[in-house]
Amino acid sequence: MGKIYAGGVPLAEVVRSGFTEGVHRGSLVVLDASGAPVFTAGDVQGPIFPRSSNKPMQAVGMLRAGLRLCDAADLAMVAASHRGEPVHLERVAALLRSGGLTEDALACPPDLPGGQEAREAYLAAGGTRARIAMNCSGKHAGMLLTCLGAGWPTEGYADPGHPLQRLLVETVAEFTGAPGEPPCGVDGCGAVVTAASLTGLATAFLRLVGAEPGSAERTVVDAMRGYPVLVSGTGEPDAVLMAGVPGALAKGGAEGVWVVAVPGAGAVAVKIDDGAHRASVPVTAAALSRLGVEAPEGLRETPVHGGGRRVGAVRPIAL
Fold first, then answer.
1. What is the pLDDT, as a whole number, of residue 109?
2. 276 Cβ neighbours under 8 A, 6+ residues apart
3. Going by DSSP bridges, is the β-strand pair 9-16/19-32 parallel, antiparallel, or unpaired?
4. Residue 178: its pLDDT value, please?
5. Are 211 and 217 in contact (CB under 8 A)?
6. 132, 11, 80: which is closest to 238 by C-alpha?
7. Whose CA is closest to 286, among 303, 301, 264?
8. Average confidence (pLDDT) over 178-206
9. Integer distance in angstroms from the first to the last C-alpha of the chain?
10. What is the 8-class DSSP label of residue 135?
11. What are the tens digits of pLDDT across the range 47-91?
12. Nearest Cα residue to 52 out of 134, 133, 112, 111
């Protein structure tokens, strides 16, 4: 089997009851506002699968292909990894209705809401695994509407050979500067995921936040920053950071990926090798301080609990 990522170095420690019980390894790049590296650790040039961190770029590709939405909040849902709160499910359902579509048209797998409180409420109301509850259902609804607008078939829209997926691969490669044909795989939602390096990801997010008003890039960024809770969920890191840092664009991806850019300051991209977001969030928060950006306090450590109370934390190492 091929290998595209060489792996990282210790970036965070797990402290419980005053003792370090382990570390999270990963890779990290910090770029200044000009795109020059300020700090790197681990493999920042080998490609990874950014997973949902690609969604802002994919949303740009959809707009370029003719996706037209009446509300910026709908565009935020297209770029979202939502937690299945009622506002998320209702808006995705409305997106589908706007195209005369039903949930059956979605190619993403049936799932339960990802947020704990949302999941408990959903189950208590009699909910079962459904495609619309899957965290990528907003992106998939946007893909379907893009196909309708472009005159492409909706059947097989998530397949690698579909014109929509080919366009989105090209768009991600354009923004991240991936040479030639980048490695591609199947994302958790069933659509294509395009590989990129951490340096390419951070560069792409810098381009997004620096885009001119009226451009497709700026339209996506403004929608995400304007509706941060739709992009992830109440109290989720993406929403907390975008609400707490003026101008910030943040988008997490599965397997411990997180990318943040702040206009005039720079960008950070991190990949935690074991996929733990409990490490990617405080590592990114610490890395932002190298750019003079103060992340909200709740993102600087991830609590570790024992016996129903906090007994430690996941903390960045030497950042």
1. 98
2. 24, 256, 314
3. antiparallel
4. 85
5. yes
6. 80
7. 301
8. 95
9. 34
10. T
11. 999 999 999 999 999 999 999 999 999 999 999 999 999 999 999
12. 134
